[in-house]
Amino acid sequence: MNEIKKPFYKKTDIIIISIIVFISLISWASFNLFTSNDHLFAEIYLDNQLVKKIDLSTAQNGTFSVAGRLDVIFEIKDGAIRFYESSCPDKICIRAGFLSRSNQSAACLPNKMVLKIVSNTETDDPDFIVK
After folding, report:
1. What is the pTM for the complete model shown?
2. pLDDT, tens digit, 9 for 90 and up, residues 106-126
3. Across the chain, how many H-helices and E-strands are there?
């Protein structure tokens, strides 16, 4: 008895998956194309207060911390910034890696610190509130 095995997927499944992949690629490409990387600033917030604003185009490579949180260290390298060290238990902020594009952000919630990349064309209105 020769039994013909039917495929696990149907032709419509392949079409739907192809459409989803295509839409994802278009979204990713448009995000990368339309985000401004001209003149970027890193904003560091502590307890919802802006404590430091750094021009990433002129910042020198190195590490630093901000007043009030000496246990959280940031690193600037080639126009990008990241959490380098932190006293928080989970280290999610460090795993976020380098931020170098407008509207990227990373947060260290146990230490109530947020790192946000903004361009010079954006307003100073806050996008978030940490309490």
Report:
1. 0.67
2. 999 999 999 999 987 655 556
3. 2, 7
